[in-house]
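A further point concerns the way the authors explain their paired sequence and structure data. For illustration, here is how one protein appears when written out as sequence plus structure tokens:
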Amino acid sequence: MLSAGAKYERISLDAQSTQLIESRQMGVTDVARLLRIPPHKLYDLTRSTNNNIESQNIDAVVDGIRPWLTRIEAWVNADPHLLPAGNKIEFQIEGLLRGDSAARATFYSSGITAGWMTPQKAAQLENLPAPDELDYYLRPLAMAVVRPGQPDLLPDATPTDSTTGGTNG
């Protein structure tokens, strides 16, 4: 609806204006490439979807931030005037890599059930309360080491005497 004598006119861009817009778009991509960050971090969402933004965020940390942090760590750790002897610095960037909650849950679950991570450590890594009751390791019983000639001693098991069928002790 147009009022007060207004007329509809179609506006189109000529080839030169279209080329200018495309060149500015290329400028954003060039800057992103120079800074080693994904273009969506500079609000260029032409190739981004909700499905790949999380992956691109992780790539930004791994390919953009981590190399610089590694250089800074090496530089500071190599300079004896910056740190007392026997000390070192290390950046903790795991929080920046948290993107995928399902993958994190799978990682923690596999670590706890495989016996190389405690539930307390998993809670600490997620900045959750980590009481002392969670400081234990699980031992996968389906994969216990059994050597020929030696009984498999579980933490709560008592070795048996094979000649009498009774227990030792």
